[in-house]
Write a structure and sequence with these properties.
By secondary structure, the chain is α+β, with helices and mostly antiparallel strands. The chain has three domains: about 120 residues, Roll (DNA Polymerase III, Chain A, domain 2); about 120 residues, DNA Polymerase III, Chain A, domain 2, CATH 3.10.150; about 120 residues, Roll (DNA Polymerase III, Chain A, domain 2). Helices cover about 20% and strands about 40% of the residues. A nine-stranded antiparallel beta sheet has the order 10-6-2-3-4-18-17-16-11. α3 packs antiparallel against α4 and α6 packs antiparallel against α7. The N and C termini lie far apart (about 65 Å).
């Protein structure tokens, strides 16, 4: 069978599915499974922890000849397609045990592996612990809004991912690295399903994969599946009990509120951290009834940055230290023009929320100055 398709159309799909393979691997985990028959053209990738399958829209390609299934090296295949001129006509066909890619006067021959070596990650309907239908755009936006708070290589494995919790009418996502935590509540329809922890290594894969159409989330205990039109993504889940994030948010919410303009605060912190030294640039905040003073920490005696911005605060003055980078990441992720900071003490977590976005909360732990 011969496949004819535009290089840009194929590259669009490869950009997503080629996130999965282990590009340093020479075995099947570094390959794409290419499946072609009279009704479909699809690519699958598997790296031992997650598997993605994408079917290319039928109106983007044409097929001639007999069906085939073969594994092609992911990095080489992706690189070849990406190097071709935009919108160039590309033909792909199997010649004995090799795949031949041709475009104009360019011709590439790639060694392959048998399709039988490609592993299968799947669970059946009777193994399912529940499912939920949600718009892909809503899911990806929610993950991105708090996903940066998730740890990547913490010894506490349960922190290396996003916690999905389901209750009647609400899906809650929580992520923390021990220094900061993000929590977002998303209205959903359907019965509660199994809670799970999505690995940090899969966060961006899910966001790239789901698109804007409806996505069905299903679980089977140790595995989650995200199904969209023309594609399926399976991933193994992190085993462990997630901390009681609600208790931390509720405790921080008891603090005294300082109301500030989001962009003013973000700009002040960004400027001040330019003169804060160390691998974790710190800032000192002094909060009074009408102003927040932001000062650099750790620079030279003569190299000091200080910025002052107005605020609305009705409590005793407070001085507290924060990691400047962590603080700004949180502030910039708040969607409202005004944000509320709930201060308890210089030694406990501070709650940050958009003025009109109570469904999204961040708790930032203080730094020792």
């Amino acid at each position: 069978m011969k496949i004819s398709i535009k290089s840009s159309d194929l590259a669009h799909y490869l950009k997503t599915v080629c996130r999965v393979p282990d590009r340093k691997s020479t075995d099947v985990f570094g390959h794409l499974l290419l499946e072609v028959d009279s009704s479909q053209l699809r690519f699958s990738a598997h790296n031992g922890h997650k598997q993605m399958t994408l079917a290319i829209a039928p109106d983007l390609y044409s097929l001639v000849g007999e069906a085939f299934r073969i594994c092609v090296p992911a990095q080489k295949f992706d690189s070849v397609i990406g190097a071709l001129p935009k919108d160039a006509a590309v033909s792909i066909q199997l010649a004995e045990t090799k795949v031949v890619i041709a475009s104009g006067r360019s011709r590439f021959t790639l060694a392959t592996l048998p399709a039988e070596q490609f592993p299968v990650m799947e669970f059946t309907a009777d193994q399912s612990k529940g499912d939920l239908l949600i718009p892909g755009e809503t899911l990806s936006a929610s993950i991105r809004q708090i996903g940066f708070c998730a740890a990547r290589s913490d010894c506490r494995s349960f922190l290396n991912g996003i916690f999905f919790e389901f209750r009647d009418g609400t899906m809650t996502l929580a992520a923390s690295d021990g220094y900061r935590m993000g929590v977002i509540d998303v209205p959903v329809e359907g019965a509660p399903m199994q809670h799970f922890i999505l690995p940090s290594t899969c966060i961006e894969d899910v966001c790239q994969f789901v698109g804007s159409g409806p996505v069905l989330i299903s679980t089977s205990g140790s595995m989650a599946r995200f199904t969209r039109d023309g594609g399926v993504l399976h991933t193994k889940l992190i085993d462990g009990k997630y901390p009681d994030y609600r208790r931390l948010v509720d405790s921080a919410a008891k603090g005294d509120v300082a109301r500030v303009t989001r962009d003013d605060l973000a700009g002040a912190i960004a400027r001040v951290t330019l003169l804060s030294e160390g691998t974790m640039p710190l800032v000192r905040m002094t909060i009074t009834s009408d102003a927040i003073s932001v000062q650099s920490v750790g620079g030279g005696v003569e190299d000091v940055a200080n910025d002052v911005l107005p605020c609305d605060y009705h409590a005793e003055p407070l001085e507290i230290g924060f990691n400047g980078v962590f603080t700004n990441e949180i502030i910039r992720s708040l969607g409202d023009k005004e944000c509320d900071l709930f201060f308890n003490s210089s030694g406990s977590g501070t709650l940050l929320r958009g003025r009109n976005s109570a469904s999204t909360s961040f708790v930032l732990m203080p730094a020792r100055l």
